[in-house]
TrEMBL record:
Domain DUF4314: 9-76
Protein name as annotated: Uncharacterized protein DUF4314
Species classification: Bacteria, Bacillati, Bacillota, Clostridia, Eubacteriales
Any Pfam family hit: DUF4314
Domain of life: Bacteria
Organism: Fonticella tunisiensis
Length: 76
């Protein structure tokens, strides 16, 4: 991933506003062949970092983040 692939500061701020800590989310799809997460899994947002990754504490014990522009989650 190059610097031009990272979201803009405005996009990161929008994500931080849209997914504040404590927001419940559901996984739609994740592009990670090594993850045990599957569509329908739910979790709680921990924080959004400066490259737009939404860090989630999943109910199954995982703490894998959802990568901006790659993985898809929805608010519950």
């Amino acid at each position: 991933m190059s610097a031009r692939d990272f979201p803009s500061k405005e996009t990161v701020l929008r994500l931080k506003k849209q997914y504040p800590p404590g927001t419940r989310v559901e996984l739609i799809c994740m592009d990670d062949p090594y993850s045990k997460l599957k569509p329908g899994d739910q979790g709680t947002v921990s924080f959004v970092d400066d490259i737009g990754t939404i860090h989630i504490n999943w109910d199954n014990g995982s703490s894998l983040g959802a990568a901006y522009g790659v993985d898809v989650i929805r608010k519950l």
